[in-house]
Design goal:
The complex is a heterodimer. By secondary structure, chain A is an alpha+beta fold. Chain A has 14 helices and 8 strands. The N and C termini of chain A lie far apart (81 Å). By secondary structure, chain B is mainly alpha-helical. The chains are: A alpha+beta, B mainly alpha.
Chain lengths: 333, 136
C-alpha cells in the first residue's frame, strides 16, 4: 500500500508503508501530518488514518529507530510525538499516570534510575525458573540487601511480592512449626514443669496443625496491616517518597526472606525476624531514597504502633516453641 | 479532597483494605472460637508496664462480643481506630458496589502535616498514660 503525505503544504509520495514508519520515527512526520492512500475519501491526520502506527510500541535500546527518545520513567523508547519534557527530562505519554501519582504523593518526578530497577529474581521467574528465582531472591535480600533493594522495582503490582511472601513465609513458618514440634519434648525437658500445667500432646499437635493451616491467611492479612503501619509511620517521619505499593513490596521481600531463617532450631524465628527488620530498614532507605536513620525511625514508630501484630508474627515464627513453653507453664499470660 | 476515578495501574485501596478488614474479622473470629493462644506482650513481660497498644486484643474481643463500653474502657485509642475502620469499610463497600468515584486526598501542606503528626503523637501518649494509670 502506498501513501501520500503533506509536508509543508506540499504533497509528497507515494511511499510504501515501511517508508512512512521510517519518516515517523525520524520525526519528519507526526501524528497530525495529513496523509492519504487509495480507499480513503479524504486526507486525514496520521493518527486517524493509522492509529496503530502512532501507538507503535516502544522498543528496547537494541532496536531503536533513529530519532526515538528514551522515557526517563520507563526506560523504553518512543517516537518524538509521544514525548513531553518536564524539568528538562523526557517522559512518555504512557508514563503519565504514574508520573502524576508520584508527584502528588511524593512531590518528585521519577528518577533516571527507574528503568534500571529490574526487580529481584522472583520478578523474572518466567525466565529463570521457579525455584532458582526464589533462591536467588532470598540470597540477594539476606546477603546483600543494599544491592537487592537498589535494583528492586518500586511499582508493578502487589501480587508478585505477595506471592513470594506467602509462599516463602508460609513454608518457613510451617517447617519451623513441624521442626519445633518434633523436638519440643527436648525443649520441654529443659523447662521447669509446674503441676497441672502439662498439655496433652494431642492438643499441642492439633493446635500446631490449626496454626499451620491458618498461616497463609494470617500472612496475607498481616502483610497488608504491617505494611500499612509502616507506610503510615513513614508518612509521620516525612519519609514516604513513594506510594504504598513500594513500601508493601519492600516489606514482602524483606520479611519473606527473613522468615526462611525460622528453620534454624530454637532461635531461628527471632534471628529471622530481627534480620528481616534490618533488611526492611535498608530496603525502605533504598526504595524511598531517604536516609537510613529516617527509615529506622519509621520502623520504631511502626513497631510501637503495631507491636501486637509484630508479636503475632514473632509467635508464628516460633509457634511450636511458644506452645511448648506455654504447656510447661513457663509463660504467664 | 476530590472525588475521581482510579487511574490505570493505581492501587485500589478501597478494595484492598475492605478485603483486609473482612479477612481480619474472619480470622479473629476463628482464632477466638478455636481458643488459640493469644500473643503475649513482650514489652509488658520485660518492663511490667503496658505498651502503647496493650489491651488491643481484649478491645477486639469485647467489640466482637458487643460490649462496646468495655472495649472503649480497655483501650480508647484502639477502639476509636476500630470505629474509623468500620466507617471506612462502609465507604469502601459503597463505592465498590455502586462503582462510584473514589475520595482522594490532596497532599497535605507542610503545616497540616506537622499538625497531624503532633495530634497523632499526643493521642498515642495520652492513651498510653491512660493504660498505665488503669493498669491494663
Amino acid at each position: 500500500m502506498n501513501w501520500y503525505y503533506d509536508l509543508g503544504g506540499q504533497r509528497q509520495g507515494p511511499v510504501p508503508e515501511a517508508e512512512l514508519d521510517r519518516l515517523l520515527a525520524a520525526g519528519t512526520l507526526n501524528a497530525n501530518t495529513l496523509v492519504w492512500c487509495e480507499g480513503m475519501a479524504n486526507w486525514a491526520p496520521l493518527r486517524e488514518a493509522r492509529p496503530a502506527s502512532d501507538a507503535a510500541p516502544a522498543t528496547t535500546s537494541a532496536a531503536v529507530p533513529e530519532g526515538w527518545v528514551r522515557c526517563t520513567a520507563t526506560g523504553r523508547y518512543f517516537p518524538p510525538s509521544q514525548i513531553v519534557y518536564l524539568d528538562g527530562k523526557a517522559y512518555s505519554a504512557e508514563a503519565k499516570a504514574g508520573i502524576v501519582q508520584g508527584v502528588m504523593q511524593g512531590g518528585e518526578l521519577p528518577d533516571d534510575d527507574e528503568s534500571l530497577r529490574t526487580g529481584p529474581a522472583w520478578e523474572q521467574r518466567a525466565q529463570l525458573g521457579f525455584f532458582k528465582a526464589i533462591w536467588e531472591t532470598i540470597k540477594a535480600v539476606l546477603v546483600d540487601p543494599s544491592r537487592a533493594f537498589e535494583t528492586m522495582k518500586r511499582t508493578g503490582g502487589i501480587g508478585t511480592p505477595l506471592g513470594f511472601y506467602v509462599l516463602v513465609g508460609s513454608a518457613g513458618t510451617i517447617l519451623a512449626l513441624i521442626y519445633n514440634f518434633v523436638f519440643q519434648g527436648t525443649i520441654q525437658s529443659f523447662m521447669p514443669q509446674q503441676p497441672g500445667s502439662e498439655m496433652v500432646p494431642i492438643a499441642q499437635a492439633t493446635m500446631t496443625v490449626i496454626i499451620a493451616v491458618l498461616t497463609p491467611l494470617i500472612m496475607i492479612i498481616s502483610s497488608f496491616i504491617t505494611a500499612g503501619f509502616l507506610h503510615l509511620a513513614l508518612m509521620i517521619c516525612s519519609g514516604a517518597k513513594q506510594p504504598f505499593e513500594t513500601t508493601y513490596r519492600t516489606h514482602c521481600y524483606a520479611m519473606g526472606a527473613g522468615t526462611v531463617l525460622a528453620v534454624i532450631p530454637i532461635c531461628g524465628g527471632t534471628i529471622g525476624f530481627i534480620w528481616g527488620l534490618v533488611c526492611m530498614c535498608i530496603g525502605l532507605a533504598k526504595t524511598h531514597r531517604i536516609e537510613t536513620g529516617r527509615a529506622v525511625g519509621a520502623m520504631f514508630v511502626a513497631l510501637i504502633g503495631g507491636c501486637v501484630l509484630c508479636c503475632t508474627l514473632y509467635m508464628l515464627g516460633a509457634g511450636a516453641v511458644f506452645a511448648a513453653l506455654a504447656g510447661s507453664g513457663a509463660l504467664k499470660q | 479532597m476530590i472525588w475521581r476515578r482510579l487511574r490505570p495501574g493505581e492501587t485500589d485501596h478501597e478494595a484492598l483494605w475492605l478485603g483486609v478488614s473482612l479477612g481480619s474479622l474472619v480470622l479473629a473470629k476463628c482464632w477466638l472460637w478455636l481458643r488459640l493462644p493469644q500473643p503475649p506482650c513482650v514489652f509488658h513481660a520485660v518492663t511490667g508496664c503496658p505498651c502503647p497498644t496493650c489491651g488491643a486484643t481484649r478491645c477486639v474481643r469485647f467489640a466482637l462480643g458487643g460490649d462496646f463500653g468495655a472495649a472503649l474502657a480497655i483501650n480508647p485509642l484502639f477502639f476509636t481506630i476500630l470505629i474509623g475502620i468500620v466507617l471506612y469499610d462502609i465507604y469502601a463497600a459503597t463505592v465498590l458496589a455502586l462503582r462510584l468515584p473514589r475520595l482522594c486526598a490532596d497532599p497535605l501542606p507542610p503545616w497540616a502535616g506537622q499538625a497531624a503528626r503532633l495530634a497523632a503523637g499526643t493521642a498515642l501518649a495520652v492513651n498510653w498514660a491512660w493504660l498505665i494509670w488503669r493498669g491494663v
